[in-house]
Design goal:
The chain has 335 residues and is mainly beta. The protein has a single domain, classed as 6 Propeller (Neuraminidase), CATH 2.120.10.80. Helix content is 0%, strand content 40%. The radius of gyration is 19 Å and the shape is globular. A hairpin with a 2-residue loop joins β4 and β5. Strands 1, 2, 3, 24, 25 and 26 form a six-stranded antiparallel beta sheet that branches. The chain has a four-stranded antiparallel beta sheet with strand order 4-5-6-7, with no helix packed on it. A four-stranded antiparallel beta sheet has the order 8-9-10-11, with no helix packed on it.
Length: 335
Amino acid sequence: MTSHCHILFFCSVFAVLLNISAGCSSRKVEQELIITPCAPLPVARTSATCFAYRGKCYVFGGRNDTTNFRKGFLGDCWAYDTMSDKWTRMPDMPFKPRTKAAAVVVDDYVYCGLGFNGVINTDSCYLKDWWRWHIPTDTWTRLADFPTTDTNMPVTAYYNKKIYSIFPTHSGSSRLVYEYDIQSDKWSQWPDDWHIETIGGATGAQIDSICYAGGGYFLGMKSQWYAFNLASATYIRKHDMPGGGRMFASAALLNNRIYVFGGRKTAEYAKSETLLNDILLYDYTADRWHYCGTLPFSGRDQMVSAVASDNIYFGTGEDRDLIPQNDWYCLKCAD
């Protein structure tokens, strides 16, 4: 990777020593997080989609104009090589440009689509098309459309030849879970359960057969955090996110711990101070949250992230002035 200044977080001097309590034990484990600036994405954007494949991070879609919600939607795709610290322009996506799409890697394929392009609350702007991309041959196949217009901002997961869309929305929030059967090319919906909070703009990450997801908003910020068991099609509520919840945060799994970073603490965009730049860690073995310090920039939401080469790569999004960003970072544990 190109040499950059390493950013270490030790509490007040740009480094963090993370103390994790194991259950009720007094034993503590210190973990240093290292965040390194990487080569910036050539085109700034917010609300994009990201996935990792064979040591590369792919970023596609999003928008680069937040002043006019009818414009600025992007259909390009870029690949970041974690070894060379370089971006390569890929062929454009074959579908309509969009924000907050879904993308799930299964072997040499990426299943992607859904998302949004247009005016909110307009059915045709919630995109239902679903595709399979064979990356080695750059071959695309159109698959069965999503069954409803609940296609915006999903948390996605994969287990046992099925892909899951959790908390996808239409008019802002939902409590629904959909599953796509790869073998039959069919979508189905889990039974609606009113015990689950209605949420929009949630975040989450998967550990084995469990997808952890929550946060978001609906008539206020949501802090609820759920564990969806994809093997049994059941769920359980876990310990709430600290700080009253957040929407449009980013999340990634590293070393069997989920890191949640950024987002905003209110849906009022005019209040720039509501953007967050902290890093939270969720320890699923103890069902506990921990504070890990701050990101190397001021508040940011609608970033993307992916895990490649045993590190978390993240960036883009929009800042307090709603300006799309193109910076890119590597987060790793020092030990």
